Amino acid sequence: MSRITRREWLQLAGAAVASAGVAGRLYAAPPSGPRFLLVFLRGGYDAANALIPYSSSFYYEARPTIAIPRPDPAVTGGALALDPNWALAPALRDSVGALYQQRQAAFVPFAGTQDLTRSHFETQDSIELGQPIGGTRDYRSGFMARLHGSLVPAGSVAVPAISFTDALPLAFQGPGQIPNISMKSVGKPPFDDRQVRILTDMYAGHPLEPAVASGLELRRQVAQAMQALDEEMRASSRNALSIKGFELEAERMARLMRDDYRIGFVDIGGWDTHVNEGAAQGALAANLTGLGRGLGVFSQSLGAEWKNTVVVVLSEFGRTFRENGNRGTDHGHGSVYWVLGGALNGGRIAGEQQRLERADLFQDRDYPVLNDYRALLGGLFRSLWALTNAQCAQIFPQVAPVDLKLV
Amino acid sequence: MSICVSLLAAFGIGACAAPATRSAAAPGAADFAALSRVDAVWLERVSFGLDSGTVADFRRLGRERYLDEQLTPSSEALPAPIAAQIHTLQTPPLDAAQILQSLQQRRQAANAMAEGPDKEQARKALNDDGNRLAYQGVRLELLRAIYSPAQLREQMVWFWLNHFSVYQYKGDLRWLVADYEERAIRPHALGNFRELVLATLEHPAMLQYLDNSQNAAGHINENYARELMELHTLGVNGGYTQQDVQQLARVLTGVGINAGPVPHLKPEWEKLYVRRGAFEFNPARHDFTPKVLLGQNIRAQGFAEVDQAVTLIVRQKACARFVSSELATYFVGDAPPPRLVDAMAETFQKSGGDIAATLRTLFLSAEFATPRSGKFKDPMRYVLSAVRVAYDGRTISNTRPLLDWLNALGEAPFARQTPDGYPLTASNWESPGQMSRRFEIARAIGTGNVHLFDAEDGGAATPPGFPQLSNRLYFEAIEPFLAARTRAALAQASSPQEWNTFLLAAPEMNYE
User: Fold this and answer.
1) pTM above threshold 0.90
2) Nearest to A266 by CA among A168, A177, A341
3) Res B451: pLDDT
4) ipTM of this predicted complex?
5) Residue B504 C-alpha, separation from nearest chain A C-alpha, in angstroms
6) Which residue in A39, A80, A41 sits closest to A319, CA to CA?
7) With the CA atoms of A373, A378, A383 and A386 taken in that order, what torsion angle do they form, in degrees rounded to the nearest 10?
8) Distance between CA atoms of B286 and B217, rounded to whole angstroms?
């Protein structure tokens, strides 16, 4: 099936859903325009072993068994020096490192939230809600939903959003119903048109009506898109089975974001490295390798639309600067965020920075937070969609967006 | 009834078994009456959904006496075929110490072998063994949840398994989760909260999952210390600080696992050494400096420090509030009334953490006197209640499909990777993707071709057949409360299997 045909089909499907009394979230998006994907690394990834502060002697003192050696031109496949202070972990060298060298990737060290609980769950919630710290929380209002809401012109839906997750994340909780489906496995749609109609009618007027209608519709849409993807891959003699894990998910996400969606969310777990974290190789390196390769596949699969796309990779907090007693790291504070995109003004370390010796640590233990995530994301969104101040304030209340000139 | 009649006419089969059952059983007049709506909702909340046995017990005893029996279940009283399955699952006895010992021996033997097919074989056998044991834990959990008349205890076993969540794919946990459920959780499910905390604290599954088995003087790992306060007892805003986390981590140094011989210790440490099964407190690994936790001094004294710390923590008002709030959210729904949580917290604190007493306050509260249907079922309650109503007491021999459904819906036992356990609030389970998945499960259960009655692990298969959902239980407790739109959907069913699918997908079956 060609792209055009599918888009036409989607328009029909969207119209059908809209006529059934559900907000037309599944309308096809305009053929071009900005795209944004948020990749949430759940568990607090150890930023200091992904972007290595190699000019800090204290980094090497504080991590006797898990520090990653300084970049060395004589060593092939070691850490990749990005500037005089920072180097990229060997695990990311060929993937995100290659993007960085094409100026399609940037890193923002000392990024994060003012939340100090060091609790995974509390801090993830607080980031996803994106509300001012210390106020009353509204658990039905995530910042990605507010971004989506702020971009919806009255009466139409031009910026469709999707969550590539089994459950709807807090970031997408809001008054509109954002569809969600994991790309880990995608099967054929379970019900025929008649059954879909009966099931949807059964929920007419029920609070779950939007979720039921959207869920059943999305299964049909995704099944069609994946069938097209499979056919294309077969036609171009690429072996669909050769990629798996996050790379396969990323390829599927790219297909849906290329054709049908403009705002996406995905999360990846397994970053809570309290024990035997490893250094250049090991548990964290394996996770980073899979993530980096997936992001590489994502950028390639978007084709020409990669230049319209921005990806942000973040995590709830960084980890302790010192390794703990078990060759791992415990919950910390500041992190390093990644920003990727085909038209990014990248190839640099962005945001406020500082030295990293012992005296510079926050509470003698962690990276400080110098770049508030709400200001940072707010600035990206403002540039990406030319938002007004009012729209910015709707997405991240009580914070001034900071423009890092990345997009 | 008109739907039932039209079904009979349309399919020419006994899809409406209810009238026949009634005359055959010749029950008393009272039995003919439908449950009142508030009773049906109340009973659904207490149980994993209605089945005939549960409804009969409730009718016989009335609300308060039924609750008494549920809070102090005398014996297991499982149906004989289920008791037999459970007996088989517990033979040989699940014992963490023995399991770990044998695992370590076999692992060493496998590692010592030369590279080659034999070594591969030995490793595979070990791996298969881990999977088998973890699945045994799942079977014990699911069979009891479906068939035990002590429904509230089984709900609490699931609640606590989730509250003190462990993840089978970390370390050796696949070998340990069944024992964790049987020895750490179930005996204390309706008992004393402090003892429950200590039982989980001493279990190798928890010690390995949250890394405390590696926490030693000079090698601090604060993972468990933090979650013990944040997730298990006080809640994230429960009044402790990062300083308290670090202090508790030091209290917990030396609390670990040892399935091997007792280590050789200095004489002054020998009397402080504690060993229960594979649980060990090793003074040689303990930090013997004084600590201050939650403003209280903790004198250096070995494992007694842990006892003192846990006692101190569970006596905090924040603990009573946090546990009560979690329980109320589980049984009442998102944002439970603060007055109810206050009453439960008061009972919890006055009774020294008596779980059954706290539940009595909950189930006899004004809020529960006339409960309104409106609590969205999480996947566990959805799948179990659908199977209980669809197969009403019929003996399941193969639990694999149940596990597959729970996996598909994202709430399988021992499969939550993070220690927070599965979310209690509805918004985590009712997204578009989850609803379409749930309807697929409704169809799987409703069409019946699901191998629930095959032998476990690919043995003899039973011929496919679909459940008779329009049974007596349906007319007693479901049909009277169906909405017009649900009736309209059922009337459009083109087969009994599809009728079952629509009913199991209906709002009435997704809420309790």
Assistant:
1) no
2) A168
3) 85
4) 0.89
5) 11
6) A41
7) 170
8) 5
